[in-house]
Amino acid sequence: MKPHMNEDVHERARRLIDMERVEGLTPADRSWLADHLAACEMCAGSAAQTEAALRALRTASVSLPRGLAASAQLIVRRRAEELRAQHARNVALVIGCTLSWVIGVASAPLVWKVCAWLGATLDLPRVVWVLGFVTWWFVPLSVMGLVVLWLRRRWESESPAFGSRWEGR
Ligand SMILES: [Zn+2]
Predict the structure, then answer these.
(1) Which of 1, 108, 127, 164 has the most CB within a 10 Å radius?
(2) DSSP conformational letter for 159
(3) Per-residue confidence at 77, pLDDT binned at 50, 70, 90?
C-alpha cells in the first residue's frame, strides 16, 4: 500500500496532523491529509495516538480535584497581579527618569542662554554663570533620585514580596 510513498509524504502528514490541532488546515491540506490517512496505516495510527493523548489530557484536567485546581489558579493569579503591580511601578520610575532627562536636555539651550544673559547683565565672571548652569543641570537629577529612593522605600514597606531585602527593619 505504501511502497510508492517516500518519507517526505509521511512527514508532511505528521506536520498537518499537528497543525490541524493548533491553527487549522486549508481545505486542500485537509482533503490531502484525509486521503493520506485513508491510504497509510502508519500515519493513521499516529493521528489516532495524537487524538487519544489529547483526550486523556482533557479528561485528566477535568478530573483534577476542584479545590486543588481553584487554589492553584488563585495562587497563579495573585502572583501575576503582584508582578503586574511591580512592573507598573518600574515602568513609572523609568518614565519619570526619562522624562526628567528629556526635559533637562530640551531646556538646556534655553537655560544656557538665560544664564549667559544673566551673567552679561549682572557683569558676572563667566565661571560663575557657567557654574550656575551646571548646578541647574544637576538639581532635577538629584531631586528625581531622592524621589525614586523615597518611593522605593515606601513600596518596599507596603509589599513584603517587594521588600524581601529589607527584612532587617
Ligand atoms: Zn503516511
Answers:
(1) 108
(2) -
(3) confident
